[in-house]
Amino acid sequence: MILTITLLVAITLYGIYYYDKMYSNSERQLIIKKYLKNDIQDIKKKVTASTKTTKAEAKPAHHAILSNIIDNGALIMEHAHLQKIISGEHTWELRTTKFKKSGYIGLVEKGSKQICAYAKIAGYYGPLSKEELKASKSKHGVLAKDYNAKDFKRLNAIELCEIVELPSPITYEHKPGAVIWVKVGEQDEVVKQLKGMLAS
Length: 200
Description:
Blueprint: H1 2-58, H2 62-72, E1 74-77, H3 79-87, E2 92-95, E3 103-109, E4 114-125, H4 130-135, H5 137-140, H6 144-147, E5 156-171, E6 181-182, H7 188-199
Parallel strand pairs: 1-3
Antiparallel strand pairs: 1-6, 2-5, 3-4, 4-5
């Protein structure tokens, strides 16, 4: 009888121990699953965010370039100097006044009525002294006899960078009064062609 009772107590205790162990294991498994689920969700969120960031970074820069050119317009330049700017031989364009424009601008060969390139304004310098003009001759290409002349007034430099020649020039309507800048944004067909070239 005592043996039977002892056996029953032992079985009961073992049952309680086993149940407690199983319950604890289940609870631990639930906790682990919960954390794993949260980790997976966090990873998915991070991957999604990373993908969005990558797409944003990969967004073509031509949108910003086009917007700049529409706002700023295109600068009219002498043929010889423009070609040296495009080739990279010169990086400065000398003007009588400083402009307040920034970002990208179109480049137009004087008399051509065509936008043949675009560039980014890297900075402005001036008014430049004769000594500074001499020291920076390799950047602007103006001869000493010209910048030493008493009537020479182009003492302000626009530094251009990221110069890109267009695959084919874009013809625009040259309106009266357009001596220095061409207002690109006013001509829808020009904007359309420029957009197509920048996107290609």
